[in-house]
Automatic annotation (TrEMBL):
It comes from Salinarimonas ramus. InterPro entries: Pyridox_Oxase (IPR000659), Pyridox_Oxase_Alr4036_FMN-bd (IPR024624), Split_barrel_FMN-bd (IPR012349). The keyword Oxidoreductase applies. GO terms for molecular function: FMN binding; pyridoxamine phosphate oxidase activity. This is Pyridoxamine 5'-phosphate oxidase. SUPFAM superfamilies: FMN-binding split barrel. Residues 20-109 form the Pyridoxamine 5'-phosphate oxidase Alr4036 family FMN-binding domain.
Length: 199
């Protein structure tokens, strides 16, 4: 554990701050205990309201300014992204005192190589959600009036519902809390420019 009294390099260096944010996101993909494992994702609802939900962060590609999560093709968020691809993500790590906010555009991959690779890389337990019937979000007459797959064959039959969502990241904003002075920075990934902001 780093000494909390020491000032880390990212506190006074924009490049280091961005690299720190990417490292935390990458850790979130691998470490299910990391707060970055389950960020909140916001879409614009079909009625114009903001809509938020938790997802599991499945991949990050700093060099391409992308991240990936998986969802069900039948989910409301997929219909919302089809109408307006603008999304935002948020996560906060209380131990590292780091908030990361991301804005980007989402693209849904259902049948191409991106989707196929993501499906192949998923564990059976993760694949099982895509074989639930009826569709996620449908009103049901009783709390348990839905069915889960009972066999591997039934799980695999859920493949048409599986989608990988790639978010092309436009901006990353970081807020790091410290007694010596908070640090807030915003990075435009298209231009590569970063700036410190008043926290
Ligand atoms: C810890 C946790 C992880 C979740 N991971 C995912 C996920 O990776 N993908 C997903 O579509 N939903 C995930 N969910 C469920 C969503 O939060 C949400 O309830 C569901 O996707 C329906 O959202 P929608 O109706 O806005 O599409 C997760 C929920 C929790 C609590």
């Amino acid at each position: 554990m780093p000494d909390p009294r020491e000032t880390p390099a990212f506190a006074n260096d924009l490049d280091e701050m961005l690299a720190h944010a990417w490292r935390q996101l990458a850790r979130g993909v691998k470490d299910r205990h990391s707060p970055f494992h389950c960020p909140s994702v916001a879409t614009i609802g079909l009625d114009g309201r903001p809509r938020l939900r938790t997802v599991v962060l499945r991949g990050v590609e700093p060099s391409a300014a992308r991240l990936r999560f998986h969802t069900d093709r039948r989910a409301f968020k997929v219909a919302e992204i089809a109408v307006d691809p603008r999304v935002a993500l948020h996560a906060y790590d209380p131990a590292g005192k780091l908030q990361v906010r991301i804005e980007g555009r989402a693209r849904v991959h259902a049948t191409d190589a991106v989707a196929e690779d993501a499906w192949t890389g998923s564990r059976m337990a993760s694949r099982a959600c895509y074989a639930t019937t009826p569709s996620p979000g449908e009103v049901i007459p009783a709390p348990d009036a839905f069915t889960l797959p009972q066999s591997d064959a039934e799980i695999l039959a859920g493949r048409p519902h599986f989608t990988a969502v790639i978010v092309e990241i436009d901006t990353i904003e970081t807020l790091w809390l410290a007694h010596s002075g908070h640090r807030r920075a915003r990075f435009d990934l298209a231009t590569g420019e970063g700036a410190w902001l008043v926290p």
